[in-house]
C-alpha cells in the first residue's frame, strides 16, 4: 500500500484570492487543512519607524496608505489621537463631516469586501455591481480632497477644508454620446451634499439588488454557511473586533459603546450575527450598508443647516487662513512654524481606537514633547483577524480557506504597515 | 475623571494591592504599571476578576525608551524596553493600559501572556521582531514582519531608518543579492524637544 503523508503547499504570495501579498503555508491531509501558517510582512514599509522621523502633520498621508480601501478612517484614528494628546476640541461641523466621511468610507470598504469575497468564491457578477457604486463614492472623495484614494483630508484639529459648493461634472468627449453624458451628470448639478443625498436615496435599492444576487444564492450559501464558525468566547479571546466580532453575536461597536465625535447624536442600529460563520458576517456587513446610509443622511441634513468653521482656530495646531497668512504678521509666523518645525505635542501617551470598517483600528502614540512622535503603534484589525487564520481554518477544506480569507476582510497595507 | 475610571482605579487597587507599581489616569486613560515578575499573574487577575473582567487584549506594543526626552532625557524611565498592552473590558465598557518593563536592557525578557489572551500571539512576535523583546513561554516566537534571515531589530532607536542592507538583482549572479545600503541618511526636519510648555495649546 502506498504511504500516505501530508502535503505542504504555498498559497500565495501571488495568488489572486490571497488579497494582496499573503503567503499562506498550508499543511494538508488530502484536501483537509491541518495547519495554516500565514507568513506576512511582504508589504512591510515600516510606517511606525518612519513616523518617528516625520512631524505630526507629515504623518497624516502615511495613514491613507495603511488600509488603502478605507483611507479616511485611518486618518481619523490618527488625528483623534493627536487631538487627545493636545487636548483640543474639534469644531462641531468638522465632527459631522468626519462622521459622514467615516460612513462613506465604511460603504466603500464593504462594497469592495463583498464584491471581492464573492468573486473569490465564484460569483463573478457581484464585483461589477459594487464597483459601480464605489465609483460614485470615489468621486465624492475626489471632490472634497482632490484625490480618489489617498485623501489626507482629516487634519489634527478638524478637516482640511469645507465641503465644495459644486460637484465636478463629466466633460463632453467624442467617446461619450450626449444622452449618456446627461445621465451621468444628472445628480451632479448641485453641491457635493446634493450629490451625496442623491446617493443615499439611490443606495437602499442597490443594496436590495445585492441581496437578490447573493443572499439566497445556493452556491454562495454552500460556500459560506457553517464555514469558519467562531464562537463568541473564541472571538473575544482571539482579539476580534468589528463585523468579525458582531458576526459571532457580540454587540460591541465603539460607535455605540465609546462614542467619539458625534456618533452619540445620530441614530443607527448595530446588526449582530447568530452563528458566527462567514454567511452571518456577510449579512452583518450588508446591514451595515443601510445603517451607514442612515447616518450619512442625518449628517447631510445637519450639514446643510449649520455652516461654520471646519478646523480649529488655534493656530498652534491648525494653519491660519491663506488670506490671514498674507496680511497678518503673527499668522505668517504661525504658518511658517507649522510647516517647518511643526506642532509640538505635550509629553504623554494616548490610545485612540475607532470603529473602522474592518474592526477596531487604534493608534497608540507616545510623545516626549517633540515635534515628532516618539513611538507610534498602529493596531490594525486585520492583523488580529489574520492571526486567527489557523484557528478558523483548521479542519476545513482547502477551498474554504479562500472563503475564510475573504470574510476576514484582509488588506495588507494595514497588516504589514 | 469620569466615575467609570474612578471605579476602575478603585477596583484595581483592591484586587492588585501591592503589585501595582504605579497607577495613573491621564487624558481619560488609565495606565497600570507592574513589575516583570508580577506581569503574568496580574494579567490573569485582570482577566478573571469579576470587578475587572478584561476579556480582550486589543494590542501589545513594544517600546524602546532609550532616547525618550531628547538629549536632556526629561521623563525617561530607568529601564529601556517595555511591553505596553491595551485591554478592553466588553462587560464593563472600559479600557486599560498595562505596562511592564523588561528588567535587563541587554537581554530584555518578559513572561508571555499568551495563555491569558491568545490574541497576543502575533503581537508578541512583532515586539520580538521589531524590538528584540523576548517573551518566555511563547510557543512560536519567530520573526513576523521582517524578511527571512533579517538581522537586527528595526524599531530600536539605535537602528537607522534606512537600515544596513539593501536588496537588488545582480545580473551576473542571476539572483537577488544583499549589499550595504547606499542611501544617504538625511533629516529634513530635525527632531526638537523645546522647553516645557513650548507651543502649548493654551498659551498665547
What fraction strand of chain B?
25-35%
Low-pLDDT runs of 5+ residues of chain A are none
Largest sheet of chain B: 5 strands, mixed
**Biggest chain contact:** A-B, 61 and 52 residues
Stretches of chain B where pLDDT is under 50 for at least 5 consecutive residues are: none
- Counting DSSP H or I runs of 4 or more residues, the number of helices of chain A is 18
Number of separate structural domains of chain B: 1
Keywords, please?
heterodimer, A: 417 residues, mainly alpha, three-stranded antiparallel sheet, 8 strands, B: 204 residues, alpha/beta, Beta Polymerase, domain 2, five-stranded mixed sheet, two-stranded parallel ribbon, 27% strand
Task: Give a topology summary.
The complex is a heterodimer of chains A (417) and B (204).
Chain A: E1 7-11, E2 23-29, E3 32-39, H1 47-51, H2 60-64, H3 71-86, H4 92-120, H5 125-145, E4 154-155, E5 158-159, H6 178-184, H7 192-215, H8 218-224, H9 232-237, H10 243-246, H11 254-257, H12 278-305, H13 322-327, H14 329-340, E6 348-356, E7 359-367, E8 375-379, H15 381-387, H16 389-393, H17 398-408, H18 412-416
Antiparallel strand pairs in A: 1-2, 2-3, 4-5, 6-7, 7-8
Helix pairs in contact in A: 3-4, 4-5, 4-12, 4-17, 5-7, 7-12
Chain B: H1 3-16, E1 22-26, E2 29-34, H2 39-48, E3 56-64, E4 81-89, E5 94-101, E6 109-111, H3 120-131, E7 134-136, E8 165-170, E9 175-180
Parallel strand pairs in B: 2-5, 6-7
Antiparallel strand pairs in B: 1-2, 3-4, 4-5, 8-9
What would your notes on this structure say?
- The complex is a heterodimer of chains A (417) and B (204).
- With 417 residues, chain A is mainly alpha-helical.
- Chain A has helices at residues 47-51, 60-64, 71-86, 92-120, 125-145, 178-184, 192-215, 218-224, 232-237, 243-246, 254-257, 278-305, 322-327, 329-340, 381-387, 389-393, 398-408, 412-416; strands spanning 7-11, 23-29, 32-39, 154-155, 158-159, 348-356, 359-367, 375-379.
- In chain A, strand 6 and strand 7 form a beta hairpin.
- Chain A is globular and about 90 Å long.
- The model of chain A has no long low-confidence stretch (mean pLDDT 89).
- Chain B has helices at 3-16, 39-48, 120-131, and strands at 22-26, 29-34, 56-64, 81-89, 94-101, 109-111, 134-136, 165-170, 175-180.
- Chain B has a five-stranded mixed sheet.
- In chain B, strand 8 and strand 9 form a beta hairpin.
- Chain B is globular and about 70 Å long.
- Chains A and B meet through helix 1, helix 3, strand 6, strand 7 and strand 8 of A and strand 3 and helix 3 of B.
Amino acid at each position: 500500500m502506498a504511504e500516505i503523508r501530508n502535503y505542504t503547499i504555498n498559497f500565495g504570495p501571488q495568488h489572486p484570492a490571497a488579497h494582496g501579498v499573503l503567503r499562506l503555508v498550508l499543511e494538508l491531509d488530502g484536501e483537509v487543512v491541518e495547519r495554516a501558517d500565514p507568513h506576512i510582512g511582504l508589504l512591510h514599509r515600516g510606517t511606525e519607524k518612519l513616523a518617528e522621523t516625520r512631524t505630526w502633520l507629515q504623518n497624516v498621508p502615511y495613514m491613507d496608505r495603511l488600509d488603502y480601501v478605507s483611507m479616511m478612517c485611518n486618518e481619523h484614528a490618527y488625528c483623534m489621537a493627536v487631538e487627545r494628546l493636545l487636548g483640543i476640541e474639534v469644531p462641531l461641523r468638522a465632527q459631522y463631516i468626519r462622521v459622514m466621511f467615516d460612513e462613506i468610507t465604511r460603504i466603500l470598504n464593504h462594497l469592495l469586501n463583498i464584491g471581492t469575497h464573492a468573486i473569490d468564491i465564484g460569483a463573478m457578477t457581484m464585483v461589477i455591481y459594487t464597483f459601480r457604486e464605489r465609483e460614485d463614492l470615489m468621486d465624492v472623495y475626489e471632490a472634497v480632497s482632490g484625490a480618489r484614494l489617498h485623501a489626507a483630508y482629516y487634519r489634527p484639529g478638524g478637516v482640511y477644508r469645507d465641503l465644495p459648493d459644486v460637484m465636478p461634472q463629466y466633460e463632453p468627449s467624442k467617446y461619450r454620446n450626449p444622452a449618456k453624458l446627461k445621465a451621468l451628470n444628472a445628480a451632479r448639478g448641485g453641491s457635493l451634499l446634493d450629490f451625496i443625498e442623491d446617493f443615499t436615496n439611490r443606495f437602499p435599492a442597490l443594496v436590495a439588488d445585492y441581496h437578490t444576487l447573493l443572499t439566497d444564492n445556493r452556491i454562495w450559501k454552500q460556500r459560506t454557511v457553517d464555514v469558519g464558525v467562531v464562537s463568541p468566547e473564541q472571538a473575544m479571546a482571539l482579539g476580534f473586533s468589528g463585523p468579525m466580532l458582531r458576526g459571532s453575536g457580540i454587540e460591541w461597536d465603539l460607535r455605540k459603546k465609546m462614542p467619539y465625535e458625534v456618533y452619540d447624536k445620530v441614530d443607527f442600529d448595530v446588526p449582530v450575527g447568530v452563528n458566527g460563520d462567514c454567511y452571518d458576517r456577510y449579512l452583518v456587513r450588508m446591514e451595515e450598508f443601510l445603517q451607514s446610509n442612515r447616518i450619512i443622511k442625518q449628517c447631510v441634513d445637519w450639514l446643510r443647516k449649520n455652516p461654520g468653521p471646519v478646523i480649529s482656530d488655534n493656530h498652534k495646531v491648525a494653519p491660519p487662513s491663506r488670506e490671514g497668512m498674507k496680511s497678518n504678521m503673527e499668522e505668517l509666523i504661525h504658518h511658517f512654524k507649522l510647516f517647518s518645525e511643526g506642532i509640538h505635542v505635550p509629553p504623554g501617551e494616548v490610545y485612540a481606537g475607532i470603529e473602522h470598517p474592518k474592526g477596531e483600528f487604534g493608534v497608540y502614540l507616545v510623545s516626549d514633547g517633540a515635534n515628532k512622535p516618539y513611538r507610534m503603534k498602529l493596531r490594525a484589525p486585520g492583523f488580529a483577524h489574520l492571526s486567527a487564520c489557523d484557528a478558523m481554518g483548521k479542519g476545513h477544506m482547502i477551498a474554504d480557506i479562500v472563503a475564510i480569507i475573504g470574510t476576514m476582510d484582509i488588506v495588507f497595507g494595514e497588516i504589514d504597515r | 475623571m469620569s466615575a467609570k475610571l474612578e471605579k476602575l482605579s478603585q477596583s484595581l487597587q483592591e484586587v492588585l494591592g501591592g503589585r501595582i507599581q504605579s497607577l495613573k489616569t491621564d487624558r481619560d486613560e488609565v495606565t497600570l504599571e507592574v513589575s516583570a515578575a508580577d506581569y503574568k499573574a496580574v494579567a490573569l487577575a485582570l482577566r478573571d476578576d469579576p470587578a475587572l473582567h478584561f476579556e480582550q487584549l486589543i494590542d501589545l506594543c513594544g517600546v524602546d525608551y532609550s532616547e525618550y526626552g531628547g538629549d536632556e532625557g526629561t521623563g525617561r524611565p530607568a529601564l529601556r524596553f517595555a511591553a505596553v498592552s491595551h485591554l478592553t473590558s466588553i462587560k464593563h465598557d472600559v479600557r486599560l493600559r498595562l505596562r511592564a518593563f523588561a528588567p535587563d536592557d541587554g537581554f530584555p525578557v518578559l513572561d508571555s501572556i499568551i495563555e491569558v489572551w491568545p490574541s497576543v500571539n502575533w503581537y508578541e512576535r512583532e515586539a520580538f521582531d521589531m524590538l528584540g523583546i523576548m517573551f518566555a513561554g511563547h510557543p512560536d516566537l519567530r520573526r513576523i514582519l521582517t524578511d527571512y534571515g533579517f538581522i537586527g531589530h528595526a524599531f530600536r532607536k539605535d537602528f537607522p531608518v534606512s537600515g544596513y542592507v539593501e536588496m537588488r538583482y545582480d545580473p551576473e549572479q542571476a539572483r537577488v543579492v544583499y549589499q550595504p545600503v547606499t542611501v544617504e541618511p538625511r533629516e529634513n526636519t530635525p527632531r526638537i524637544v523645546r522647553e516645557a510648555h513650548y507651543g502649548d495649546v493654551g498659551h498665547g
